[in-house]
Amino acid sequence: MVTSCSTNKAVLAGFLTGSALTVLATGLCCYLLHEKATTQADDETEQESDSALQPDIVEGVDGLIGNTPLMKIRSLSEATGCLVLGKAEFLNPGGSSKDRVALNMIRTAETQHLIKPHIGSTIFEGTVGSTGISIAMIARAKGYKAWIVMPDDQAIEKYQLLEKLGATVEKVRPVSIIDKKQFVNLARERAATFHDGEATGYFADQFENEANFNAHYTNTGPEIYRQTAGRIDALVLGAGTGGTLSGITCFLKERIKHLKVFLADPQGSGLYNKVKYNVMYAPTEQEGTRRRHQVDTVVEGIGINRLTKNFDRGRHLVDDAYQVTDEEAIKMSRYLVREDGLFVGSSSSVNCVAAYRAAKKLGPGHVIVTLLNDSGQRHLTKFWSDEYLKSQNIYYELKPEESVQDFVC
Ligand SMILES: Cc1ncc(COP(=O)(O)O)c(C=O)c1O
User: Fold this and answer.
1) Per the CB 3.0–4.6 Å rule, which of 305, 331, 336, 400 could disulfide with 270?
2) For the structural domain made of 61-91+219-392, what CATH number should be given?
3) Residue 218 Cα, ligand 1 centroid: separation in angstroms?
4) Matching SUPFAM superfamilies, A to Z (predicted)?
């Protein structure tokens, strides 16, 4: 009995072990088969998404130019009930909207066989800085030399940047455009007389060159149209050469019939009176009243006292103009940092003051577009320096309790 009982136990134990092993083996097989199937499916999905992936690489520094984002400026939008949008041109690789212009002027000159890379062809320009920096950068990237003639009263970081980019920098006293030594006239003359073996000089001439207008007509304008899906009520811009204002305005007004265009002009510039009354006149131009340089303002890059070809192309489409004081521009720049963390240069500040006024004029619900041309970093020693402003008796503090409606008239 004892023997038979132990035999039965052994059979039972054997049966149970066998069954357990079978279950284990089956489970393992199922697991392995499932793993294989999952891996195969994953591989197939990866292959599918791999084929949908396209390389997204830009060619060189010039590939980084343009396609800048359009941002909602929250503080100004909330203060007006409008959607106030700023195109972040300071994100261009050379730090300003002038990259677009410099690239198109150089490309156009290449197409017209006026310059040839790597033989010493030299690009000359008379500029207050931003265009020079863009030309110097693109000249390096494309095998040209750059020679920049500038007034000697601009922010020091602009000269430093130009030198670091390898440009020849010639600083001259600010004088009237009728003077042969005026920076634009001098750049033209230098280009005409420059020869270095096979290489000649090319005067970029951003004020009169239609490649400036075209850069904005074919790029900046279409970008704004696409980014807003064509829903814009007002465009607000300052003008130096006028290429930005005319190029974008001509493109947008062909498509948006109700669009209003407002010029944002700094104090001391004659364009405000030209738009409002068709007279090129700035009161600060009166004999003996001028305080600083040719346009009597701390703002750099916009404001001018002559009519350029690039401004004239879009002038008939400008509906109205706002004059912006240094006080308003300085306070707006500090306000945008305080409220939005947005650190912009002087011309962008003027644009934002005028954009606020346009929004107030049109009333809530409208879409207002302006440009944020460059960053405050390019203006640290002048527009953004309280010490400099105090030394010029043009220091205006933005008080903690002051809001935009308190400092913009
Ligand atoms: C910083 C900055 N903003 C705006 C402008 C004005 O653009 P535009 O010359 O197209 O009128 C300039 C012109 O030099 C500039 O340097």
Assistant:
1) 305
2) 3.40.50.1100
3) 17
4) Tryptophan synthase beta subunit-like PLP-dependent enzymes
